[in-house]
Please model this.
Amino acid sequence: MFGLRQCRYLNRHPFLGHRFLGSDPSAKALQRYAPGKNADFLVELEDEILVVECKATSSTARDLTENALDTDTATRKLAKGIIQLYTSAHDLEAGIFGKLGVDRRKPVTGAVVTLGEVVHANSRWFFDKFVLAKAEPKLKEPIYPSSKMPRLPVAMSISVLERLVMACNVLSSTPGTLYDAKEHTHYWLEGDWDQFLNKRLQESNLPITGLAFLADQKSRLLESLGIADWQE
Model:
């Protein structure tokens, strides 16, 4: 899966862990390395590291006013998620995860994965005015720009994360490569990650193929339920 070397739980988490990345029996050992408020996953790829924090939240604000966005629960949870991403990036650079064999020289990209959509979460206006304003006072060093996490952290729903994995595999790309391409687009003209990924996939004209390990798990689930797999 796009150069995956290892995926590690930093915290036991039912939301993303069991639905998307599967179970890792080393979770308790990882918590000994990272007892603080770390992110949920550390995914090491060939040339980069993806740190993921999961938040079961989505936008609840009915009006997109500054006050509504500032007081929205999703905004507060995003800020907390950013703090956890930064903490993991800091611990990685400090060598805390050294016994896991993670190459800490690789660039780190942080992502807060949410249950539903958080409106405008990846616009610089939203990030600077609401998320960064809540998160930065709780950290000793600047979150962004930071040598520990040089790219601006991103926020995406679980469905968009699944689309990101699909795009990486179909386009033979990586999260970092797609991130850099996304940075060259204008947010208010091109839209957020869902529109960006959909456009990339459509323009490629390449067939959408499923992941082998997911197909196998799906077949086992259907078999356990006594349901025929229509793709067979």
